[in-house]
Amino acid sequence: MTPVSRDTHWMYRALDLAARAEAEGEVPVGALVVRDDQLLGEGWNQPVALRDPTAHAEILALRAAAQKVGDYRLGGSTIYVTLEPCPMCATAIAHARVERLVFGAWDPRQGAAGSAFNLVAAEALNHRVDAFGGVLSEECGLLLKRFFESRR
User: Fold this and answer.
1) Helix, strand, or coil here: 30?
2) Which residue, among 49, 40, 41, has the nearest Cα to 21 in the 3D structure?
3) Active-site entry in 26, 58, 84, 99
4) Is 110 helix (H, G, I), strand (E, B) or coil?
5) Given CB 3.0 to 4.6 Å as the disulfide criterion, which of 12, 79, 89, 146 pairs with 85?
6) Is 58 a catalytic residue?
């Protein structure tokens, strides 16, 4: 499997998780952590259900991955997210020593991987993450657009 097809494969899995968030009434964002083509952890937005402002898809995926490997450091891993991470999630991704971040839709208002901010590459942090945006961006963006239009 080529790197591009691998990224697409995992992003489709993240989209399935985003759809789960939407079905639960949450903003449709899904995330998963992969290393050596093995799924380490997954998550979908759940701040409403869990009454937890930190229960973003990325945070839940990082927590699950850290539990599975027995270490909060997730070197050599890739996190796939349907939406560019916010500042909280981007910083957590960097602190977990994730190697790559692959995301779908850009978030020009709050994105922290190159849009509004670029925290994953900040010199102030001990670790920088290679970020690649726009993987299945149309599919990821459409899911979010439909969700917010249904709320208006």
Assistant:
1) strand
2) 49
3) 58
4) coil
5) 89
6) yes
